[in-house]
Amino acid sequence: VAIAPPINASGCPDVDMLKVADLMASELSTIPGIGVIGVNRVLAVLAEQGQRQVASAEHALAVCDRLGADAIIVFAVTEYNPYTPVVGIVAELYSKQADRAQLDPVATSRMARPFPVPPDERAPKPWAQVQKTFNASHEAIQKNVKEYADGRDANKTPLGWKRYLASQECYLRYCCYSVARDLVQ
Asked: Is 120 helix (H, G, I), strand (E, B) or coil?
C-alpha cells in the first residue's frame, strides 16, 4: 500500500504534512499483512509528474500503477489544534482490484472527501473511507489512547500513557494508527 502526502484542509499552517504522511506509513506498517511503500517513493513519482499532491481519484490510481502498488491511501488533515489536542482525518483507500460492493453509497456521499465528488458515475471510487475527529478532551478518546499506548513504550516515561496526549507527534501517531486500522479492516 502506497501512502500519498496528505492534503492540509485544517486551516492550520503549522502542520508538517510530510511528517503526518510518514507517521501514517509507520503506523500502517504495524498492521499484520500490510506492506507499505514509503511516502518518499510517492513523492518521487509526483515530482516526475510536476505535482506535489495527488489531485484526483484517477491520479491516485495512476500513481498506484506507476509504483506497482496494490493500493494507495489518500488522506487529508481536516482539523488540527495541537493544544487540546484535536485532529481530524479523512482517508480513502483506492485499488483497481478492489470490490466496491462493501461501500454504502449514502454514507459515502455524506462524508468529507479529499477530492471533489466526480459527476461521472464511472469515475473511480474508493474501496474504503474513514472520517474521524480525535478530541483528546473526550473520555472515550483518552481510553483509546491509553489502550494504544499500553501496547507501546508509554510506561517508560514520567508521563506514562499520557505522553500520547501531551506530545503532538505521539498523538498524531495514535490518530494515524486508528485511521489506518479502520481503513484496512
From this structure: coil
Q: Which pLDDT band holds residue 179 (cuts at 50, 70, 90)?
A: very high
Spatial separation of the C-alpha atoms in residues 40 and 100, rounded to whole Å: 28
The pairing of strands 86-94 and 128-135 is antiparallel
**Pairing of β 2-3 and β 72-81:** parallel
Phi, psi at 102, each rounded to 5°: -80, -15
The whole-number pLDDT of residue 55 equals: 94
26-30 contacts: CB < 8 A, separation 24 or more? Answer: 26/173, 26/176, 27/173, 27/176, 27/177, 27/180, 28/1, 28/3, 28/73, 28/176, 28/180, 28/184, 30/177
Q: Round to whole Å and give the CA distance between 93 and 53.
A: 15
C-alpha grid cell, residue 6: 496528505
Mutual angle of helices 39-48 and 17-28, in 10-degree steps: 130
Whether residue 108 has pLDDT greater than 90: no
DSSP-based three-state secondary structure for 77: strand
What is the spatial distance between Cα 28 and Cα 85, in angstroms, rounded to a whole number?
22
In sequence order, the 6+-apart residues with CB closer than 8 A to the CB of 165 are: 85, 136, 142, 145, 171
H/E stretch holding 7: strand 7-8
CA distances 35 to 38, 76, 132, 184, Å, are 10, 21, 23, 12
